[in-house]
Specification:
Largest sheet: none
Strand content: under 5%
Oligomer: single chain
Order of helices and strands: HHHHHHHH
Helix content: over 70%
Distance between the termini: 44 Å
Number of strands: 0
Structural class: mainly alpha
Number of helices: 8
Length: about 180
């Protein structure tokens, strides 16, 4: 189990399978499954969460809400991960590096594994704190993946993470604003 928490094992696996036509399918499956965990745990927490935290944070259970928000979160998370990878690859020219599309998408999707796992805690409202920590851990995974798979330097990789997250978040905000009635 500890080996699964080591990002180098994941980067080794990606490097071994870069020429394999099944890699995009495996990455998409990982993104869809991870996003499903995030959406399902969030939905369970929203519909059925019922403890003293409700009163502390002014939270109210929403048992009768529709399924639209669940599917929006699920699909939006998958799209956000792929967008982050595509933006990350597009930015590579800034660092005088080639655009390695599959590698960049791999970094975005695999780097999100800590968030996939921590998202299961979103069933409970305090799980948000764990998820915030997992996001910071994912930032480290994305930085390491950028160094390992994209060939970025130690000073470039953290900057690349921040810029790719900022641009992809902006694109997702524009997308969601365009889809909102």
């Amino acid at each position: 189990m500890l080996k699964l928490a080591d990002p180098d094992i994941w980067w080794d696996t990606v490097e071994r399978h870069l020429g394999d036509s099944r890699l995009p399918i495996a990455l998409l499956t990982l993104a869809i499954t991870g996003a499903l965990g995030i959406a399902a745990a969030s939905e369970i927490g929203i519909r059925y969460f019922n403890t003293d935290w409700n009163f502390a944070f002014g939270y109210s259970v929403q048992r009768d809400r529709g399924w639209g928000p669940f599917f929006a979160l699920w699909g939006g998370t998958v799209i956000a991960l792929i967008t982050q990878g595509l933006v990350g690859a597009a930015l590579m020219r800034i660092y005088s590096k080639p655009r390695l599309w599959m590698r960049a998408v791999s970094v975005a999707i695999i780097g999100s594994i800590p968030m996939y796992v921590a998202a299961l805690a979103l069933v409970l409202l305090p799980g948000v704190l764990l998820f915030a920590f997992a996001f910071l851990l994912s930032c480290g995974w994305w930085t390491g993946g950028g160094r390992r798979l994209l060939g970025l330097g130690y000073g470039e990789a953290p900057e690349h993470v921040v810029v790719s997250l900022t641009i992809s978040a902006g694109l997702m905000l524009l997308l969601s604003a365009g889809l909102t009635p």
